[in-house]
Amino acid sequence: MDQPTMMETRRLAADTTLLGAYTPVPGHGVLPVNAFLVEAAQPVLIDTGLAALREEFLAALTARIDPRDLRWIWLTHTDPDHLGNLEAVLEMAPNARLVTTFLGMGKLGLHGLPVDRAYLLNPGQTLDVGDRLLTAVAPPSFDAPETTAVFDGRGRTLFSADCFGALMSAPAEHAADIPAGELQEGLRGWSAVDAPWLQWVADVRFHERLEAVSRLGAQSVYSSHLPPAAGMTDFLLRTLDDSRNAPAFVGPDQAAMEQMLAQAGVA
After folding, report:
1. What is the mean pLDDT of residues 13-28?
2. Of 31, 34, 32, 43, which Cα lies nearest the Cα of 12?
3. What is the mean pLDDT of the chain?
4. Is residue 73 one of the residues assigned to a domain?
5. Are strands 72-74 and 44-46 parallel, antiparallel or unpaired?
6. In this structure, what are the phi and psi dihedrals at residue 196, rounded to the nearest 5 degrees?
7. If you ran DSSP here, which 8-state letter would residue 264 be given?
8. Does residue 188 sit within a domain?
9. Mean pLDDT throughout 29-41?
10. Residue 204 belongs to what domain range?
11. Where are the beta strands (DSSP E) in the chain?
């Protein structure tokens, strides 16, 4: 896989659809880039995919729902792989409010994106979407301070944003399809890239954050950067804890990058 690729849209539960894609990470395999549609009484789109796949993403979304029926767009944070199609979706979904935090709203303004439809929700607060409450959660690992994960208490599902992401050798349908050792290595590798500060966090404080997630009782974890993981929450939490001892990530310098490009036949 040498370019971002949209995968086939599929249902994860009766009311939850995965809008998944993969993007290559040179020298490290591929990384999932997921968005999710929760067809609650007031439908919710969680993140908006890659701008490079705009046509494919919007086609996948509109095949599942008339965007005019969307009531909420929950932006976990303002990185490009999460807000890639936000402006287009907002235009197609005139009845939708944008769930973010005060800091997230400020960053959206810096991006030149519309903030007049923002609905501010802090970690610990809930959003009533008609047939369930969605809770904003501060995940134990993140790369942007405005990040809020989403816990769906009705489905016992945690949409964990960047937390529990993994670099992978190839796409997989479920996290459980990946051999445990390979998955652990991928999870540790992603944590070193996405949250290098984890190695500086005191055990007691970090374990408090892990325990807070454990107490949610999530039966499934739907990360933005991992195939869907059912019945694996304890494994993911343990591996994230172990990841704090992984070697720090050091990317290629210019000379190494030029060598990689030459080997790939790129002028």
Report:
1. 93
2. 34
3. 94
4. yes
5. parallel
6. -60, -20
7. T
8. yes
9. 97
10. 5-244
11. 5-6, 10-13, 16-25, 29-38, 44-46, 72-74, 97-100, 118-120, 126-128, 133-137, 149-152, 157-159, 220-222, 229-230
Q: Report pLDDT digits (tens) over 109-168.
A: 998 888 899 999 999 999 999 999 999 999 999 999 999 999 999 999 999 999 999 999
What CATH code is carried by the domain that includes residue 138?
3.60.15.10
Q: How many C-beta neighbours within 10 Å does residue 109 have?
A: 12
Q: From 10, 29, 134, select the one nearest 73 (Cα to Cα).
A: 134
Give DSSP secondary structure letters for 6-36: EPPPEEEETTEEEEEEEEEETTTEEEEEEEE
Which pair of structure tokens corresponds to residue 88? Answer: 């287009």
Q: What single DSSP character describes residue 66?
A: -
Q: How confident is the model at residue 104 (pLDDT cuts 50, 70, 90)?
A: very high
For residue 79, is it within any domain? Answer: yes
Place of tokens 């929950």: 74
Q: Which two tokens stand for residue 205?
A: 């404080």
> Please, which residues bridge with residue 25 across strands?
29
Looking at the 3D structure of the chain, how many domains does it have?
1
16-26 exposure pattern, b = at least 16 Cβ within 10 A, e = fewer: bbbbbbbbeee
Residue 256 lies in a domain: no
Q: How many whole angstroms separate alpha carbon 91 and alpha carbon 51?
A: 15
The residues near 177 (Cβ < 8 Å, ≥ 6 apart) are: 227
Place of tokens 């992984």: 246
